[in-house]
Amino acid sequence: MKNRRSFIKKSSIGIGGTLFLSPFYQTSAKSYSKILGSNDRITLAFQGLGRRFPGLLNSSLKMKNVEIKYLCDVMDSQLDKASDRYYKLTKTKTNLEKDIHKIIDDKDVDALIVATPDHWHAYAACKGMEAGKHIYLEKPCSHNLRESELLVNYQNYYKKSVQMGNQQRSSYETAEVIDLLKNGLIGKLNKAEAFYNNNRPRVPNQVKSEVPKGLNWDLFQGPSVRKSYTFDTWDYNWRWYGWDFGTGEAGNNATHELDIARWVLGVHYPENVDVYSSKNHFVDDGWTMYDTMEAKFTFPNDLKIDWNCHSRNSYFKNSMGGRGTIIYGSNGSAFINRQGYSVFDLNGKEIRNSKSNDNESSTALGGGGNMTTKHFRNFFKSIRESESLNSEIKDAVISQSMVHYANLSHRAGKSFKINPNNGDVLDKKIKRKFWSRDYQKGWDVNFV
Q1: Can you list the alpha helix ranges (DSSP code H) found in 266-392?
Q2: For 171-206+215-222+231-362+393-434, which CATH class?
Q3: Does the domain at residues 4-169+374-385 carry the CATH identifier 3.90.1150.10?
């Protein structure tokens, strides 16, 4: 009989995109433990215990024969809250750790769940793969285009399952309607419009301050070049305080809907990106990013994708749920979001709909729901059974590239052309300046 380590080591991902459609397991979290025996038990570690952690934890506890060995975060209060939550749900304790490197070195850990700030994602994933771990990588999978290349390079070399956490790829309803649309339900498809609207509030202006008690600021910065702490960076506002840690609202949320748009149109890299963006709200606060963006992508065969973002103006949030994707065809249109879909003829008459029971959050911070659980289950089946991942990294980085192109266009203040065959930015000045970033000495990751 194969031992557990050889089983896990030899498992690898199937390349494709087949959606796993088995029913949900309805057993309680406690009864899941150690059902299948030690030979295919998967030992997990969580890196990043912030707002996304509760939903990810709930989903992981619904998986068969999964053991959570570590909870990891750079902030004491996050570790304490996560530990308390874990104990309340399982009546057991687990190991707490601030430094992910110690967990990566533990050969008993089979899979790493990365839910850190954006600048940590590719570094943790690559180091984890190098140490033999499978990776569930929250969006955005990369901080820049070079990191996307690194992720594919490492996955090709180490042959590990790497799933990006764009969980709508595991929605039954979304997969169903996309299949219908690709098979002509509304005729020839020509355009998709993705949108995100929220009412994010004023954020504090950055001022140099003491590092908060319990925070390891050096580990928080990780691969990023060291700088002084500013209030209130660590608690989510890192997303809006420049490009050291975050990727703007595009990286935060366009990742999801742009992926749906690309999936339904069957496109890969665009030929051109054109962006109109600005900061329009609370103009004197500490938010340094755009809060409003219109990004337009053109593709071969005259296909188009738009993304419209209003981070701090929620007018359409009330009428359209805050986020979604509209698809236009020669004979009608369709609207897809996390709650299901509706299909209309050219006169606006609804001809088909399906509502989801996944209860996946829309614009609420953190999120979680049955869609995440399905995405987790697909990830673990890819490890055990080589089931095709619903968002395997080779495909996920193509959707992620659209986020980076939008941000590059915003930062460069101009549109630019792209090679649709390989995603290369054809404006050499923009590529030279923005393809990668500076890394803290000793924290860089190189191609294998």
Answers
A1: 315-320, 370-385
A2: alpha beta
A3: no
Pick the closest to residue 238 from 57, 51, 427 (CA basis).
51
445: tokens are: 């990751």
Whole-angstrom distance, CA of residue 162 vs CA of residue 134: 6
Quickly count helices (H) and strands (E) in the chain.
Answer: 15, 17
CB 311 within 8 A of CB 196: yes
In sequence order, what are the beta bridge partners of 312?
199
Q: Which of 248, 293, 260 is nearest to 274 (CA)?
A: 293
Tell me the average pLDDT of the chain.
91
Give the domain ranges of the chain: 4-169+374-385, 171-206+215-222+231-362+393-434
DSSP state of 28: -
Give me Rg for the CA atoms of the chain: 21
Checking phi first, is residue 139 left (phi over 0); if not, alpha (psi -120 to 50) or beta?
beta
Q: State the Cα–Cα distance between residues 425 and 407, nearest whole angstrom.
A: 13
DSSP designation for 418: B
Q: What is the pLDDT of residues 420-429, one digit of tens each?
A: 999 999 999 9
251: which DSSP letter? Answer: I
Which strands form 111-114's sheet, in the order they lie side by side? 95-97, 66-72, 42-47, 111-114, 134-137, 162-164
* Region 154-177 average pLDDT: 97
* Displacement of CA 218 from its chain's centroid (Å): 24
Give CA–CA dist 139/166, Å, rounded.
6
- How large is the average pLDDT for residues 9-24? 36
